[in-house]
Amino acid sequence: MINVPKINKPIYGTYIAIRDKYLNQAIKLKTDLRVTIPQGTYIVNPKKWIKTGRKQEKVFLIPDQPMILWENHCQRFPKEQTPIEDSVNPIEALKGLAETPGWNELGKKLHSRI
Asked: Model pTM?
């Protein structure tokens, strides 16, 4: 996870601009960006940000080299939860371990120490 420097003044609400340097770095490392604004902290997918965002070139210090910014809205997405059927049942996992060779001897040794 790459942290973008804290943005104190968004353009409007949750509409912000992220420098392409951070987006390209996150794409290269195959990770997401953590963006902190006054409304909260957001996790941003850099490929999706570039695909849905608007490219802006702004001149700050060097007139010949404008800084490339990508503007977009930060959106909160609900965490993806796995359904109960897909989660691992601990009792089933123990049954599977009991069937492996040598597990019963190890269990007896551990039980004798308790």
From this structure: 0.63
